[in-house]
Design goal:
The protein is α+β, with helices and mostly antiparallel strands. The protein folds into 2 domains: 3-122, Arc Repressor Mutant, subunit A (Orthogonal Bundle); 125-176. The chain has 7 helices and 4 strands, in the order H-H-E-E-E-H-E-H-H-H-H. Strands 1-3-2-4 form a 4-stranded mixed sheet, covered by helices on one side. Helix 3 packs across helix 4. The chain is elongated, with a radius of gyration of 16 Å. Residues 25-32 have low confidence and may be disordered.
Length: 181
């Protein structure tokens, strides 16, 4: 599956304005159904430095993304996507605090936008829908008869496959209205 087939045109346009053909030749890991966010960062000309960062999940300094190595892989991946969001927004100096405190209203808006980029990069619509369908099939469930317990299992397995946190996946599914009637 090629990245160009996963992302919407607005995101692709933003990426291509930053770095022409940045996604060319990238492919999802076919065995794990996840986005290689570090490869995307590399193709955009960004360097990732993993280090212990007390009080911060990550930050962008120029073309260097610093992420807290003590956090879970899912959190690190989201932080990389988040910092790529800042980069695509033209902000070359941004940091992500563990608590959402200390931001001005303008900074909060930028943080929400960077989170939206991270969600789109790590969990593009087609990948989310296909992953959910595969898990529903794997669990032998009827898509029209999903219980709360089934939903929780679908979210857990999907998040695990995509290497994102369950809360991030749950929020993405809600925003995409995947299970709405």
């Amino acid at each position: 599956m090629e990245y160009e087939k996963l992302y919407n045109e607005n995101l692709l346009e933003k990426i291509n304005k930053s770095k022409l053909n940045a996604l060319e030749g990238l492919d999802t890991d076919s065995t794990e159904e996840r986005i290689d966010i570090e490869e995307i960062a590399e193709k955009l000309g960004l360097t990732i430095v993993k280090e212990n960062m007390a009080g911060e999940s990550g930050k962008l300094e120029g073309n260097v993304i610093h992420i807290d190595s003590s956090e879970s892989v899912a959190r690190q991946r989201f932080t990389i996507g988040h910092e790529i969001g800042h980069y695509l927004l033209g902000q070359d100096d941004a940091s992500r605090h563990d608590e959402g405190e200390g931001y001005t209203p303008s900074q909060r808006k930028q943080e929400r936008l960077a989170n939206a980029y991270a969600a789109q990069l790590l969990m593009p619509v087609n990948l989310v829908v296909n992953t959910i369908k595969n898990i529903i099939d794997h669990l032998s469930l009827k898509a029209t008869e999903i219980s709360e317990k089934d939903f929780d299992k679908i979210v857990s397995e999907s998040a695990n496959r995509l290497q994102v946190s369950e809360p991030a996946f749950r929020y993405r599914v809600k925003n995409l209205q995947v299970f709405s009637e």
